Amino acid sequence: MRQPVLLTLLLGSAIVISACSGSKPANVSRAIDAVNAVDQKNVAELMLASGNPEEAVTYFATQVERDPENLASQRGLARSLVRAGRLAEAIPAWRKVTQHPDGTQDDKVMLAEAHMRANDWESAESVLNTVPPTHETFDRYRLEAMIADGKKDWEKADHFYETAAGLTTRPSGVFNNWGFSKLTRGAPREAEQLFAQALQHDPQLFTAKTNMALARAAQGNYSLPLVRMTQQERAMLLHTMAIAAIRKDDVNVGRTLLQEAIDTHPQHFDEAVRALRALDGGLG
To answer: Which residues fall within 8 angstroms of residue 31, CB to CB, at 6 or more apart?
Structure first.
């Protein structure tokens, strides 16, 4: 449905241009080319923003086949392959982009991220090491923080997380990752504060709500955090805290929380029911 509409707009624009230019063929041709370029850019942006990942891969693969040296199409293909989870193809696609004469430092950062998604942290770090220190961007520091985290270089990790958070207007994901890092280090109080910051920027981020519940449970605090949540989310967080309590041998607390989760859930909470039956049956 999209293509006929675009074609109609394109033809309509060409007719108007023709009338205004005295029907000079060269002027009309240049005008159509300009409209077509804008149209292609809009379609590409639409594909990257909301299109089905596999459809986007097909679209950009076709564009690359038509014009193999078009860097924008190469980038679109690489991004789409990552979105589609086709990392074995995405990595060489991003590598090709970085080797293009007009490739940028941002392209190298995207290649590093593709390596990380493929769980090849060594290659990711190797690529990032080729990016000069003067290239200070959110994505670069976000990845640097995760690499430092993996190496348990906590001082660097904290520095990079803080820097990344200051380079974006949407730092909720950074604060959530930073908080989870603190949680795994055995610093649940600091972690809880970071999850709270994540939720201040994105009150809908359920991952941060879950992590905050875990951080509170790690401190022996089994009351739900005072954050915005739906009835279903409340039940799920109670279930999360129940499991955390049971793992800490606070079995009676865990049993109470499981029952509350079952009573709270707007539908049947099968997972919590199974956990409570297993607990009551002495199955662990």
So the answer is: 13, 14, 17, 21
